[in-house]
Amino acid sequence: MTTAARRPSTRPTHRAAPVPASPLTGLGSLERLYGRLSRRAVLVWTLAMLVLVPASILAIEEAYPDQSALDARAALLDNPSAVMMTGPAFAMDRYTLWAMVANELFLYILIPAAIMSVLLTVRHTRGEEEAGRLEMTRALPTGRLAPGVAALVVVTIANAAPGAAVAIGTLLVGGATADSLAFGLATALTGMVFAGIAAVTAQLTEHAGTATGMALGLLALAFMVRGIGDVIDRQGSWLSWFSPLAWAQQTRVFVDLRWWPLLVSLAAVIALLVVAGVLSRRRDVGSGLRAATGGPASASAALLAPGGLARRLVTGTMIAWAIGLFLFALAFGSLASSLTDVVAEIPAIGEWAPISMDDLTGSFSAYVLRMLAIGPAVLIVSGTLRMRSEETAGRLAGALAGGTSRVRLAGTWFLVVLLEAAALQVLLGLGVGLGVWAATDDTVWIGDMTLAALAYLPAIALCGAFALALYGLHLRLTGLAWAWVVYAALVVFLGDLLGLPEAALDVSPLHHVPLLPSAEFDWLPLLVMGVLAVVLVTVGLVAVRRRDLAAG
């Protein structure tokens, strides 16, 4: 009896045999994860664009109701400082509402889009690596390229949403269809350019904060390059083309639309993403191309002193922003001499800004100082809430393990941030004074504006104290501190234009600061805000002692 030779079966031996892995395995799951993590931020940025863009255009239309008013406004662009802070000056022979939108509003739409892109890109790339989550993700059935591609997809969607909001918002208030679409597309592509820049900086360093700082530093450099280039030639010089911000502005939307500059942005996006991909293959997970230097074996006396950790973590950011805001203060102050013709053509200017016809230079300088005070208010909230990120990362627990009490750590931390924000506010007053002095040749403005800056310290301290109280009560509440600062900025920039009622204006702490030196000094609101700040600091310190740490 013979037995037939048995052939090996070609059928799968198990119904659940694993599918061969590809470089993109798990892409869908990661996209959903990153999308879930970013959905609130993207929604806030999109809604902000959808509301603020049409509101700003309507406000401009109301503030400059006729051609003479627009021509007077156009005259401001003869000042290099104005061009530096806004953009190229198109259609100067007949300035229109939409030319003003292109020349002066466009830049302040591009910058938030760029900042959003940098923050999201670093969060989903270097931030995931620094926190160790990427290594854990790769331990699962995940392709090598899946995390990076998922981050790119989410950031692209995040830029498309505000870009669409800009286009829709502009169409709602009567913008031409093609120009409005170019307006939104240019916003989205500029955001993607800075997403590509952030993707590259994320390969260079091991730390998310450093990668973010490098990308935002390049954004500041792009702002300066574009400004200097536009000062050389009012419609954009050769130097302007070295800035990604200029590529969007050179589309000349609402003036003489041309699409081809957007191809430059698109090419830059592709090139930057290719560079980021190549660089990512040259390093290990968790490391950067630029190796971190080893620290000293023991901490310095300054670092071990009370508040030393806060100074180490916060001061660098404060100094960087201080340099930029001081230059803004100088530029704004130097505009004081250019206002006479504008006011003569726009007598209703006092209805949309707290500028007095009787004391034009003084009231304008005081208004500039109020606008700039948003900077220290933002930085004191940011510096105070840095404790939150240190706590969630588990590093704050290490500091507490050294024997420092929570109250002492939080108190000295807040004191350091408060003193640095106060120094920045005084510096801004000095900058505005120097700018006005350069415009008027009157040295008295230097001292007057420096002293006027001191009046904002209680309001700035109140913003920081509110953040500290929220941090002490519960980490999930800290977002309210940002909401208050954003609302204060909205009141400063658009409160009068939007015709907000007095009760709504009073919610902003900056609204209670007298507009010195043109207004009469009133100490009562400053005293009330100072007392409230002390109360909130006390609440924060007591609360932080009673709750558990988030990590560590």
Automatic annotation (TrEMBL):
Superkingdom field: Bacteria
Keyword line: Membrane, Transmembrane, Transmembrane helix
Transmembrane segments: 42-60, 105-124, 145-169, 181-201, 208-229, 259-280, 319-344, 364-385, 413-439, 451-473, 480-500, 523-544
Coiled coil location: none
Keyword Transmembrane helix: yes
Keyword Signal: no
Sequence segments annotated as region (Disordered): 1-22
UniProt name for this protein: Polyketide antibiotic transporter
